[in-house]
Amino acid sequence: MRIIKNSIFLLLFCSISAFAQENDFQTWYAVSLNKKIIKKTNLTVKTGLRLRENSSLYAKQFTDVKIKRKYNKRISYAVGYRYINRWDIALNISNQNRFYADVYYKNKFSKRFSYAVRNRWQTQGDLYGYKMTLRQKFSLNYNIRKTKLSPSIATEYFLTLEDGINKLRSNIAFGYPLAKKLDFELAYRIQHEFYVNNPETLFIFEGKLAYNL
């Protein structure tokens, strides 16, 4: 438990301290549908849109399908596929595929504090080639007494064999149930790039809606 705490704080510190040459403000939007298909197994279909250049131009649109299964009360695993449309600076569109596998672990520090670790192995690319990436995400969640508001903080690193850790992403989020089966989350995220010609720091607002069928 102490190792996990130290890792979360170290990654948060590194992501805040990192230096980049260019900045951009982006907004991300996502809507997902969740359905229990068999015991302990859920299907999630998600679509998203991302805007860049101070949220004035299209950056990415995707459709994601994921099957997640609960192994026990602490461990889950999932496999998924994402189809991605990307727009470059000249607004030319390219398509990519992403295949990924996840392993989740969650537990509690106390009655109100919980933590989670997600390990993701993904390969993403097109006909010209694919790139493997390991993504490890640490998150802390707090259960506020007498309210449905759920705050959380998280940090994630992206690791490749070629570059090592080439991206750090940290965020603070607030979730709230709008209805019995409808949840809303608002997040603010900072993302740093490394080992590219023009590394960016992205400042991102994200809104997500999730409906449980």
Instruction: Give me the strand/helix succession.
Output: HEEEEEEEEEEE
Q: How much is the radius of gyration in Å?
A: 18 Å
Q: What count of helical segments does DSSP give?
A: 1
β content, as a range? over 45%
Query: What is the name of the CATH topology?
Result: Porin
Spatial sequence of strands, sheet with the most strands: 1-2-3-4-5-6-7-8-9-10-11
Number of strands: 11
CATH architecture: Beta Barrel
Overall, the morphology is globular
Describe the structure.
By secondary structure, the chain is mostly beta strands. The chain has one domain (2-29, 68-76, 96-212): Porin (Beta Barrel), CATH 2.40.160. Helices cover 8% and strands 70% of the residues. It has one helix at 2-17; strands at residues 22-38, 41-52, 57-70, 75-87, 93-108, 113-126, 129-142, 150-160, 164-177, 182-193, 200-212. The protein has an eleven-stranded mixed beta barrel. It starts with a helix and ends with a strand. 10% of the residues are buried. Residues 3-20 have low confidence and may be disordered.
Summarize the entry for a quick read.
Helix content is 8%, strand content 70%. The protein is mainly beta.
